[in-house]
Amino acid sequence: MSCRSPLFIIGTERSGSNLLRHVLNSHSRIAVPHPPHFMRYFSGIAASYGDLARERNRRRLVRDMLTLLAVHIHPWECTIDEDRVTSESNPTLFGVVAAIYEQYLVSTGKARWGCKSTFMIRHVGEALAEYPEAQFLWLIRDPRDVAASSRRSIFSTYHPYRTARLWREDQEWGFRAQETLGGRQLLLLRYEDLVDRPEPTLRGLVEFLGEEYEPRMLDFHRSDEARKSAALSESWRNTSRPISAASVGAHREHLSGTERAQVEAVAGRLMLRLGYQAGTIDAPAEPSFIVTQVLDLYWRLMAEHRSLRRDRNHWQRWSRDGIVRWLTLKAWLRGRTATASPRRGNA
User: Fold this and answer.
1) CA 74 to CA 36: how far, in whole Å?
2) Where are the chain's structural domains?
3) CA-to-CA distance for 210 and 217, rounded, in angstroms?
4) Fewer CB within a 10 Å sphere, N or C end of the chain?
């Protein structure tokens, strides 16, 4: 591997990870592509490929990953070579992911790669097994603002109650990672600090990473990559704008009092632990299952309608979701075949 210490942005979606990706990608030594979320989509089906020490099995996994990459909602501007990934990767799921990112890094000419897939908060151990010196940026944001943002995003959960439950689960994973990793490998970064005090926050961030601060990081919005993101999806439109704290406290306008109470009831204790104020942590504010499902479906349909009208990558997103379902079906069929084979042999 050519990169000894990649960096991982971990946490919950709609916490500013796309902003942080562009800021870091503007650094002369750091390359952070938009993530295809390989671990999210393949961790549940990886066992179906069999022993990855066997080249045939590993190649099959590589081929499926590159099939997913081919319909990525934010296309990479490089070609990943299947043969090289197969031959150069270690025989684990994340070993294959790492080989793909290493190839991407070579195409950029930079020194380090980063992964913005916040879902990696659940796969810290697998990343460390491949890169013992990896560094993690645990990005947190007030879950009420996360819920307000998620409801309009095509990439997230919709109902504030469901978003709060996801936020709570992710932060619990974050605390586990914090217990495992020392301050040299994990930095807790608040979205509110990043947008309220961008320069001092970024100076502390790059110091943690062992890199030099570069003023160009604050001009990320002028880059071709940032403009490309903003044009692809409404959910990413702010990437072509300077850092702003305008969305801090947005929940006061976009969530009802009942919805805020629901978020605080689910996430309040961890909010307090992470320095956020919460007023109703003991309130029994759980909504009915049926109401949650109906509202979640309604907001999703509204988001799909907006995406169809405004996003340039909605067809790619639908293609990606279709391929994920197809890969899941193939994995299920492989599992059925593997289960049936011994019975046929014993007949």
Assistant:
1) 8
2) 7-141+155-244+315-338
3) 15
4) C
Is the pLDDT score of 342 beyond 60? no
Block residue for tokens 């969530």: 255
Distance between CA atoms of 306 and 186, rounded to whole angstroms? 37
Q: What is the pLDDT of residues 78-104, one digit of tens each?
A: 999 999 999 999 999 999 999 999 999
Which residues in the chain belong to E strands, given as ranges? 7-11, 30-31, 112-115, 135-140, 186-190
Q: Is the pLDDT of residue 279 over 80?
A: no
Give the distance from CA 138 to its chain's centroid.
11
- How far is Cα 127 from Cα 4, in angstroms, rounded to an integer? 12
- The answer, as to whether pTM is greater than 0.90, is yes
What distance in Å separates the CA atoms of residue 323 and residue 217, rounded to the nearest whole number? 35
Percent of the chain with pLDDT over 90: 84
- Long-range contacts: 223-227, Cβ < 8 Å, 24+? 223/22, 223/25, 223/26, 225/22, 225/25, 226/22
8 A C-beta contact, residue 195 and residue 53: no
Helix (H) or strand (E) holding 334: helix 314-346
Q: Tell me how far CA of residue 149 lies from CA of 119, 153, 194, 251, in angstroms.
A: 18, 7, 17, 8
Contacts of 207 (CB under 8 A, 6+ apart): 213
- What residue has token string 């996430």? 267
Instruction: Give the CATH architecture of domain 7-141+155-244+315-338.
Output: 3-Layer(aba) Sandwich (3.40)
Closest CA to 102 of 116, 93, 91, 114: 114
Q: Residue 271 has which token pair?
A: 């909010």
What Rg do the C-alpha atoms of the chain give, in angstroms? 21
Task: Give the pLDDT mean for 225-247.
Answer: 92
**pLDDT at site 338:** 58
Q: What is the largest CA-CA distance in the chain?
A: 71
